[in-house]
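DATA SHEET
Item: assembly model
Revision: 1
Owner: S.N.
Input lines:
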Amino acid sequence: MSLLRYESQVRPPLVEGHKDYHQITEDICRPVEAAPSLLWWIGFGISVILLLFGVFSVYMEVTYGVGQWNLNKTIGWGWDITNFVWWVGIGHAGTLISAILLLFRQGWRTGVNRAAEAMTIFAVMCAGQFPIWHMGRVWMAFFVMPYPNTRGPLWVNFNSPLLWDVFAISTYFTVSLLFWYSGLLPDLATLRDRARKKWRKHMYGVLSFGWTGSTKHWQRHESLSLVLAGLATPLVLSVHTIVSFDFATSVVPGWHTTIFPPYFVAGAIFSGFAMVQTLLLVTRKVLNLQEYITIEHIEVMNKVIILTGSIVGIAYLTELFMAWYSAVQYEEFAFFENRANILSPYGWAYYIMMSCNVVFPQIFWFRKMRRNLYVTFFLSILVNIGMWFERFVIIVTSVYRDYLPSAWSTYYTPTIWEVGFFLGTFGLFFTCYFLFSKFFPVIAIAEIKHILKKNGESYKENMDEIEKVSVEEFADHHVDKHH
Amino acid sequence: MMAIREQFSKTKNFNLISLGLMGVGLLSIIILFITHGASGDHRMQARFWASLLQNSVYFLLVTNAAMFFIAATTLAWGGWQVSFRRVSEAISSCVPVLSITTGIILLAIVLSDNHTIYHWTDTEHVKHDKILLHKAGFLNKGFFIVWTIITLVGWNLLGAKLRQLSRKIDDRPLDNAGAKKYIWDNTVWAAIFIVFFSLTVMSSIPWLWLMSIDAHWYSTMYSWYTFASSFVAGIALITIFVIYLKNLGYLEFTNEEHLHDLGKFMFAFSVFWTYLWFSQFMLIWYANIPEETTYFEPRVEGAWNGIFWLTVIINFLAPLLILMSRGAKRNYGTLTFMCILILFGHWMDFYQMVFPGPMKDPETSVSHVPMMLADLGIGLGFVGLIMFFTARALANAPLIAKNHPFLKESLIHHT
């Protein structure tokens, strides 16, 4: 049997502070078992207020119609679809961390996957609100379901990418939820076993589905994780791909371009990681988890941010170049007049997008900056502003001045109810996140234990001996011979 | 103690085969030159040069993809690939000779007075072609030549630097601090390579070398698509050399766990290629804008139909179905078969990217498929060339990067 737990000393430990198994359980369960702090109550309270404001905004829209929003004759999609795409994009980082990085065997994912997956689920819940309430007559929402019906031969339009979205996002949500929840099972059982109060024991008992930690359970758990990771990987790519199809299948200059699918996916991961940084920088501090979500984790995620940000950047430049190269005057107008001309009505939005998504993240080429918590936090916010503006620029600047100047709309600004709806989704998102961080372990206890003997600080110190032996000796003593 | 065979020596057979293949290539070039290249007709000549263009660009990008693989895994701090790192390095050391070949071919095409392949080189014609006139700021001989030379020099210098970094510690074991410094240096140079790579392979170069054959047409996806095609073929090339060396009893530290992962890469990037293929094709098909569908018209509805769909079968369906199972990815025979199939499939993909334009009859605008035997022969010649230079590079350096800080991780790698 080859040596199982060894890694190079070049790699910094992922669990700091000489932990053992018991200490890990204690550290991560503590916030769940303690009474909520004042800070928690304040944060939760603000979130609920925002959520209620959102509910009221939606009530206004449903009662008085979509006219409560400032959508107009050419801008049929405004803040609502911008927000929809923005939230869906944010969800992508969770799946990337939990599924794709699992397939790539990245140990650092264990520190952040639980919170990131939770974020995915909440973000998709927020995203889903927008197309639903955008329907106006929301009581007809079930019309999007294709089933033999009594409405005559009235079927959904299978040729429409909007319908593909319905399938893609609902499937994605389901798989993400399953993935997250199946990962939670062992930890919920831990909470159940530690519970002192009867109701807690009962609650976590129900939630943990009778997990006992037997070998059979673990074996099934591991294979289930692998299967779900395998399913989630193409799914996460498909979701933003199909969102991009919503635009790219059209003939609208600024929307119709072939690079959209991979570039949307890269942008989604980019914004998702920024949101993970925002959340975790606060979470690790408030819950005192710096030894599990280390500077190392932060730095690695910043590397992902600079990578995906640069991919997005090269896609922007490609689009701009092709708009010129195509020699199609409408393409040129969409890009060089409606967007890149800073003096045009929405020129400012384009430059916010460019600077937040392409220019500012370049600071992460420097190691010092990647490891600076303040810079990271600030930049993570900027990136999410930039990515919101990317969707706004794509959606609004492509349609507000099209082929027919007589149809050029007036300047579009959202009403209070559009803004309120957006704020309401923040309320929903953070209400869920606060509840999650109170009732569930924000770090996957079982998975951290899984990497402890390889990446834990004290275990790494013991590996120094192995590090010094020659590679031949290492091969003699630690490597399987039957290969 | 475990004995390691660090020194690769070419077998007689290997030499014979590689020289034989180069002979086939040379012969094919001569035959195609006599039948087409020497003709006075511009379209006949172009058929000859298109073959050289397609083959040289394809194999150059495939070998350069080996360096991309090194750079990407270095940036990601990957450990598993270190045990066969020298194989990727050896393949990438074919880049210089292929760069010179490709450079000469590209210059010859651009500078000749035959404008069949690159319409935009015909300055007289461009004056009357509104679209090409518009593009002249990008599609002109001066920029083409300068950017091509900068690109080729850049790939070579950066590739050489990364290979040199790898050789530098062959006789010098590192302590912990040294290892950290070493990984840092590698990361920095790999990052520079990747940035340059994305400004060339993933954007400007495919536009210039390939997309400009259909000079009126455009697609933002084109360069990423070209990259995906050459990258998956590059992985196949690495895999096939690893298997060859394993079969001769070299690379003691590489086992089926590593091959399994290479198989996963081939599977994953075949799907990735398909993803980009589908996105480009479907979006143009769906929107049905005449300026964009011109590209697919000869390929889907014309004579190229068979080849067009064959590439999808070979490059998508075959890897998807055959490489799906765990056993297949750990089986030398299956993997070898798939490597050859993928290398051929993407060669074919490049074929349908290059030829429909030059093969178009200017009178009727109908494109026909030429007899491909000579092109395949030239392709085999390039394979021989790659075999020859890769083996030479393998023999020139120890087969194992013995002092690489991540080598021990690679030894105990398990999937």
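QC remark: Chain A has 18 helices and no strands.
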